[in-house]
Amino acid sequence: MNLYERIPNNVNLSQNKRLQRALERWLPNYLEWWREMGPEGFQDKDVYLRTAVDVDAEGWANFDYVKMPDYRWGIFLKPAEADARVGFGDNYGIPAYQEVPGEFRNSLRRIIVTQGDTEPASVEQQRQLGKTCPSLYDLRNLFQVNVEEGRHLWAMVYLLHGYFGRDGRDEADALLERRSGNPDKPRILEAFNQPCDDWLNFFCFTMYTDRDGKYQLAALAESGFEPLARTCQFMLTEEAHHLFVGETGVGRVVKRTAELMKESKDGDARSLGGISLDIIQKYINFWFSYSLDLFGGEISSNSADFFAAGLKGRFKEQEQYEEHVAAEGTFTLMVVEDRKLVPREVPLRNALNEILRGEYVKDCERAMTRWNKYLRDAGLDAQLYLPSTRFHRHVGEFAGHRFDIHGNLITKEEFERSRSEWLPTLADREYVRSLMRPVTEPGKIANWIAPPTAGIKGKPFDFEYVRL
Ligand SMILES: [Fe+2]
Ligand SMILES: [Fe+2]
Prior knowledge:
12 helices; mainly alpha; Ribonucleotide Reductase, subunit A; binds fe (ii) ion; two-stranded antiparallel sheet; 7 strands
């Protein structure tokens, strides 16, 4: 069988011999990685999946039953715009880079490798989850996320193979060699080494960690390196479904918890086999804080360099801003000095990580408001919340200090004393895990989560999304 018929693409792969040869070497290794590290126990099952076979409205979302190893992982870029220009930074207004500019080569490679590494990492983190799915609908969504993360890896590998020559090929190989959570060859970013072994973790991960991905991709979708910008623009259309899975997933858990709290005599969802609000809150605290780290340091010379070079813009750079050079201007943020929190003014370009993080936090607050409505609608007073962005941080200005959930500076001892109120304990995790029993009968759902309000692609909830 012709290898390239299996790879739908809009990059003229059949004409590009050099790229063909590179992918010919990489593809078998990718498939081997997928078999070894992809969803365990479901490789030979038919799954009702969306496959992109083109970028237009018709082509990007083809639904059919597919066995995951036969998924057609394609290479898609949003079609080029005529006369594209570098949209920000010191080179604002010059023609967009169609090749990698020599002086930015290392920076660009690092950006692409860091993004690329997250894609297979999340597949590895989630590989056991199929065995404990709360419904066939959720099982299908898990696999949809997994195959698309696989395609996002392809997207980054295309850029490495297509634009970085020899060292690009080496990086593409290394993307298949690192393993999530493996101490000897871990994935690059810490959130992607955390275990994601129950479905509350999965929903929080797709809510918070995938959502960081949305903001990173959005910033790269502005890039002056046009192939990267166009690649990320198309990835964002797929990513939207992952965020939907996360936001509605946590929302459905909250909704069910509210129902069970009302039903039980003492207002305790656990007595009826649900997940209590305090455990949900702790999972939120955990994943929100780890995901904030992914934006990088609050004060960052890298962010300034990437912006100056026209490689990584701000969120909705063209839509949201009128002035795209940002060489002047300052931003005030809080830092720790002499054991006190004090404001510090920094050049705007050095604060771009923090500004992007701010956009992300707004988005997370929006989802939180929605979930809290479920609680209010059930007549409950309790509310969930986002912890302070200083809480439980391992990267940036606040790493190495301890803060309470409200962002007040506290001692290490004070933090340790309250840790079990703020972050999931072993007992919390074991309890959640004890609820994780597979429900695979069409139309049935686990007790700890509410059913979705609609199925996939107009299908009902009781559709056989995965043929077991
Ligand atoms: Fe992705
Ligand atoms: Fe994703």
